[in-house]
Amino acid sequence: MKTVLPLVVGAVIALLNPAQGRTLDAIRASGVLGLCAHPNSLPFASKAADPPGFQIELGEALAHELGVSLRLDWIITQYQMRSAGCDIVLDVIADREAQGETRLRISKPYYRTGVALAVPSSSALASFQSLNEHTKVGVQVGSVAAMIISQRHVPTSTFGFESDSLDALSNHEIDAAAVTPAAASYFNLTHPDKAFRILDRDESIADLNWNVAVGMVRPDDALRDTIDGTVERLRNDGTIDRIYRRYGVVLHTPK
User: Fold this and answer.
1) 6, 145, 236, 239 — which has fewest CB within 10 A?
2) Does the reported pTM lie above 0.85?
3) Helix axes 221-236, 54-66, angle to 10 degrees
């Protein structure tokens, strides 16, 4: 997902103006469910709306189940979330410690992901364990993957966005890109002539694997329970899988 370094100003605004979460009754009374999303972060979300991104499509499905319409609140960093006044954020890490600063309440997880390696089809690399001092890996600046890979004395090249590291990989500037499977899968969908192999995530590296859930901004119990039930229904009837598959992403069951 396209993200930028946290903005100090945004953090100050968020702390000075902590938005109060809305109840399920308030959301239904207003007729809208607010979703915070990045305006330029395909396959996750896009303000251009063609395609809109799987977060927008899933948000619309959730809103439909709640009997309301979806309102999009465009943000660049998580620190803008509370001042934006949205009700939910999608594709958040389903871990209370990871959400410590955001103070989001998290739903039941709906898929599992993490950091994978995208490599050229001709690459001899087979796993994270194959990386060595001769393999340069593209990583997002400030990411956990950047720290872990560097600790293994593997040379890295830092990028602001996952898409930038995938472009560098396609231009043979690096040997592998440490990215989410979603980003790599969408690249393959939109660049079939340059498709990469996506190596399996290494579940032995706990910090590079996580479950994904709906993040809720200070929900009441009724909203939390309703979101949980809705996510379960949309998983069971295949809606969530179908949405992500349109972006080339195959979801894995949460653990």
Assistant:
1) 236
2) yes
3) 120
